[in-house]
Design goal:
By secondary structure, the chain is an alpha/beta fold. It contains three helices and seven strands.
Length: about 160
């Protein structure tokens, strides 16, 4: 028996998860709604769960578990194939501004043949179009508990 389709998210969406699996479950619900050209900005401190969210989203899109999903901290962008949509996974942690992002040709990846995911999107928020989706993951400081807020368009002040 196939798993039922995840319930769609109504944005804005806020929830608390208590494990990496829970975070992946939220990503799975978002993945069910993604379409070609979507852009997602991920915001959260080190260890908050941004890459875990990307991993859950990739698996929900059908990327096989044999494909390792890691943050592209040093390469800045990884392209992940094998699922319903190609994923262009960016890590903006080491970038200082939009000029550096332009220098790597990020526009060649955004709105083209897949979805673009930007970890540390708050470092270069102009990379996320007004129609983008923002995912803010906050560590509650209690165990593995995370607060996840997902909004369409620019995040509200103080969300990061």
């Amino acid at each position: 028996m196939k798993n039922p389709s995840p319930r769609p998210l109504t944005l804005p969406f806020v929830t608390t998860t208590r494990s990496e699996r829970g975070t992946a479950g939220v990503a799975r619900r978002l993945a069910a709604q993604l379409a070609l050209g979507d852009v997602i900005g991920l915001v959260g401190d080190l260890g908050a769960g941004k890459t875990a969210f990307v991993r859950g989203l990739a698996r929900a899109l059908g990327v096989p578990s044999s494909v390792k999903i890691t943050s592209p901290t040093f390469t800045v962008v990884n392209t992940i194939d094998g699922g319903r949509l190609r994923i262009h996974h960016f890590d903006l942690y080491r970038l200082g501004d939009e000029d550096e992002l332009e220098a790597i040709g990020y526009r060649d990846f955004v709105g083209t043949d897949g979805v673009a995911l930007f970890e540390w999107a708050d470092r270069v928020p102009s990379a996320i179009p007004a129609s983008g989706i923002w995912v803010v993951i906050e560590d509650s400081g209690v165990g593995n508990q995370r607060r996840i807020s997902i909004t369409a368009g620019r995040p509200r002040a103080g969300a990061s």
